[in-house]
Amino acid sequence: MLKFFSFKFVLGELQKVFVRFPITFICALLITISANFIIWNTNTANTLLFTKIIISCYIGLCYSLAVYLFFESKKDSKNNQIIKNVIALLIPFIFGITVYFKPDIWTKNEVQRNLILLLSGHLAVSFSAYLGKGNLNSFWEFNKSLFLRFITASVYTLVIYAGISVALLACDELFGIDVDGKTYATLFFWCNTFFQACVFLAGITKKNKLFEEKINYPNPLKVFAQYILLPIAILYLVILYAYKIKILINYSLPEGWVCTLVLAYAIVGLFCFLLLYPIKDNEDNKWVKTTLKYFYLSIIPLLVLLFISIFYRINQYGLTEVRYYVLALSFWLAGITFYGLFSKNLNIKLIPISLAALHLLMVIGPVNGFTISRISQQNRLENLLIKNKIFDGTKLTITNTKMDDKEANLIQSSVS
After folding, report:
1. Taking a C-beta distance cutoff of 8 angstroms, is the pair 259, 310 a contact?
2. Are residues 304 and 386 in the same domain?
3. What span, in angstroms and rounded, lies between the C-alpha atoms of 105 and 101?
4. In this structure, are 187 and 304 located in the same domain?
5. In the 8-state DSSP scheme, what is residue 396?
6. Is 185 domain-assigned?
7. What average pLDDT does this structure show over 359-367?
């Protein structure tokens, strides 16, 4: 007899996920429970507390998974079992303490900091099991499986959420059963946070297969990279070079938005060639290597455009967190471009490792973007106040002199 659904199987899979990634599992569960408390609770103080728990657990979910994968690449021992769980628990706990004492977690700086930490955590998951171990084939195969597993888990949870939601709506419309709107939000978090996380975690490559060299390359992945991502990258390239020609003809400086498009072109292009990496040496796909060299060459003139644009804005308005971020990514892109151009054997592990390290440096340490940006804007504000005779270097002076609107806006911008 065909079994359509088995609670025993589901519970067994959940148990396996909990045993293998206990802190990650708990973080996903706490995010879901906290979200449900926010949905059904109207107390503002409690809402702030549960929001802080959600943010801490999202950070913990990513980094704890990276910690578990790192230790799975080592030899099994009782000490390693204890150490990995302690480290995996300390990350969300310490971050949670720092978040708990912050009165406002929705300031622009806090949101930017948390997003950067999340991105770094996701990148850490991609390489944590391969630090100093495993060849590039096993590294690529592992990340391919993560990518496909994420898509699979997302589709599963979307279908389940849509199916149950339509069923509840049908009960409401056909039988007059009053279904509270909050029920749909509750269902969303259980499906798209807890269940999705468990489905994703259950499909992560087992530790005894982490370093297998065999690559199983699905043809749809090649189609996606070759016929979707690559044409998009080429479209960006055409627009950027057309814009560069326009700049040369008009003899004008580039607009700030060009930075976004240059970085988008580089990211899409790099992602495309990472997907095509395993087939680059095949007889039928020699064009990949050739195109990759041209890709790096095509970035060099755009890097000039990128640095002119960002330094022009910094010179005009000083550093902000966003400009610091773009500047840091620009230097990283320049380094990766010249490394790829002159390297005979491209180490693809270097891309996520360097990018994760860069993102951590941008939010942690003495040269983080928030500290440097504040110093830049303080210096700019001081110079503007001195220029407009409002500050003499030691104290503020009140004058009746009417200030130019442009200068007033610049001062207001720096204060903001």
Report:
1. yes
2. no
3. 10
4. no
5. B
6. yes
7. 90
